[in-house]
Design goal:
- The protein is mostly helical.
- Helix content is 69%, strand content 0%.
- The protein has three helices and no strands.
- The chain is elongated.
Length: 163
Amino acid sequence: MFDIGFSELLVIAVVALVVLGPERLPKAARFAGLWVRRARNQWDSVKQELERELHADEIKRQFREAQDSVRDTEAQLRASGEAVRREAEHVRRQAQATGDAVASDDAPVMTGPAPGSPASVAQHVAAPEPEAAVDAPRDAMAPPGIDGQAPRDPPPSTPEGPR
């Protein structure tokens, strides 16, 4: 910092010994050391305070940038939401106009599940009538009990009879 070498320190020590004398030199050295320590502590305190302020300023700057980014994103989301609402309203109007045109054609309008879908197939499957189950021919390749029309095996009989 001051670029003081060993030779300069030696000259200062000899001059101090001659000027102050051997009795007062230790007290003066302690006093000088105390002031040097206080100066260093004060310098470190100022340095730490500056670092804290710079760090706080940096955090505030980052916070402002994040707020600006959130505002920009919010504005973009609002704009895209409004565009989606306008598009949905346009599609709804088109569908309503198309629906009115279809209804005026006197053509039947299909409702319910799409043809061939599992829901459509499930609606059209009906259980066989009890009388039809007895008279209906059974597929020879179907195992008994799978198609619901095959007779069940009779319960095992015991010599004592059913319990």
